[in-house]
Amino acid sequence: MAPAEYEAKKLRKRSDYGYHQVHQTRWFDNDMYAHLNNTVYTTLFDTIANSYLIEHCGMNPFSVNNPTPNGSGDQPSSAGTDQIGLIVSTSTDFFASVAFPDILEVGLRVAKLGSSSVTWEIGIFRKGEEDVKMVGTYTHVFVLRETMRAGPGGMASQVRRGLEKLLNSPGAKL
């Protein structure tokens, strides 16, 4: 990564992320070095990205024909539920440690939107502190559930509309 990109990530603020969740760390999240184990960060990535897909993009991973409300009170069509997101890439830049019993504020935005993929950016903040502790990226490629290959039209339009709301949108409100 270019030094300028690293430094830009290090300066991220909560307002750079349009979707947020709060997570209470647990005792067994710590590793033998008394900080959050790296696998926990991956769990946080997965949790916030999939929560957003369920709440705002109509993707229900548990049922092909049972879409989930998109958070606006509207029932999305089931068009996006024949697709699933496969993780193809992750990376993480650490700036400071967090550990149990910290309460974490996790932020999400879309860093890049392709025809069948999304690269998420996740920021981890300790509750009450302004400095970002970690910035991660995580890429999903949307494929047809039955074939595990990208569909001819890329990602479903309702998924794209939901993702566009977070596309590099500091301060975006949902």
From TrEMBL:
Keywords: Hydrolase. The keyword Cytoplasm does not apply. InterPro entries: 4-hydroxybenzoyl-CoA_TE, HotDog_dom_sf, Thioestr_dom. The keyword Hydrolase applies. Pfam families: 4HBT (PF03061). One of its GO terms (molecular function) is fatty acyl-CoA hydrolase activity. Belongs to the 4-hydroxybenzoyl-CoA thioesterase family. PANTHER family: 4-HYDROXYBENZOYL-COA THIOESTERASE FAMILY MEMBER, NOVEL THIOESTERASE SUPERFAMILY DOMAIN AND SAPOSIN A-TYPE DOMAIN CONTAINING PROTEIN (0610012H03RIK). This is Thioesterase domain-containing protein. It comes from Penicillium chermesinum.
